[in-house]
Amino acid sequence: MKPMDIDDGCDRFLDHLKVERNLSPHTLDSYARDLRQLATFFDARGVRDLRRVDGSHLTAFLLERTRAGVSGRSRARALSAIRGLFRFLRVERLLDADPTALLDSPRLARKLPVVLGLSEIDRLLAAPDRRTARGLRDAAMLETMYATGLRVSELVKLRPEDLDLEAGYLRAFGKGRKQRLVPLGQVAQDLLREYLPVRPARPGALFLSRLGRGMTRQSFWKIVAAYARAAGIDKPISPHKLRHSFATHLLERGADLRAVQAMLGHADVSTTQIYTHVSRARLLDLYKRHHPRA
Q1: CA pair distance 30, 224, nearest whole angstrom
Q2: 73 shares its domain with 173
Q3: Among 21, 109, 165, 186, which is least packed, fewest CB within 10 Å?
Q4: pLDDT at residue 257 greater than cutoff 90
């Protein structure tokens, strides 16, 4: 079997992820960055042929990342990209063996997500001035995100035709362009009905910037942060906190875990289960602060 150049192997794998797996540009960028770092590491050691790579080479790479202060989460993501690369090349019969087979993944301590309380959510959602077109747009975005638990990338990609306000649902496209239907609350439906007539009559994204272009993730992040400051919320705030709050508040009120998993678009219920830990932690905190015998 002829040598397998590392750059060629990485390019084939990334093309596979883009064309066959239909991964998002953000995920592809992360994989490409991790694999470039691997290629740079091997270049410095004179390793160009992936057929010569074994577990010791990869362990040395991960140790070097640890010494460089790279977090366990980032190292785990890099290892996932590396595993995917070698498995792909093995399936394509471009390599004889998979050197990642015996590698252990870094153990990660799962951080509990930061969640807004109900009074904080109320203040945040009430912050936009709904008497203006811009304020009405912002209020509709914030309310839609909290009502549905969408990822910010899903929110900014919504189009008017993805809404079914009569039935009370919207259609979201998640990772890998997987489609799901998510229910909308009555408040979000009413705000969207108010927003749609003042939205510029342009095809494309539902939520538009003042220049008439689709809202970006970065722009919405700034909008959320500005309204959080105006609402007097001193927690670290981001659009994803609304998603965390959506899931936690549902589970605290008895929602079924599988239903929340479906609404969030999680492929694995274990990803959703972290919100049950948040609920227990918050309940314990409430108990300790308010029970006379705590």
Answers
A1: 25
A2: no
A3: 109
A4: no
Q: Give the neighbor-by-neighbor strand order of the sheet with 179-183.
A: 163-164, 169-173, 179-183
Average pLDDT, the chain: 87
Any idea what the CATH number is for the domain that residue 20 is in? 1.10.150.130
**200 is in which domain, residue-wise?**
118-290
Catalytic residues: 151, 175, 240, 243, 266, 275
Backbone angles phi, psi at 155, to 5 degrees: -65, -50
Distance CA 17, CA 136 (A): 39
Provide the pLDDT confidence category of residue 111 given band limits of 50, 70 and 90: low
Q: Are 223 and 247 in contact (CB under 8 A)?
A: no
Question: CA torsion 240→246→247→251, rounded to 10°?
Answer: 160
Q: Are 6 and 94 in contact (CB under 8 A)?
A: no
Beta bridge partners of 163: 170
Consecutive H or E run containing 34: helix 25-44
Total domains in the fold of the chain: 2
Alpha-carbon distances of 263 from 130, 185, 218, 256, rounded to whole Å: 28, 13, 24, 11
The string of pLDDT tens digits covering residues 262-286 is 899 887 777 787 777 666 665 566 5
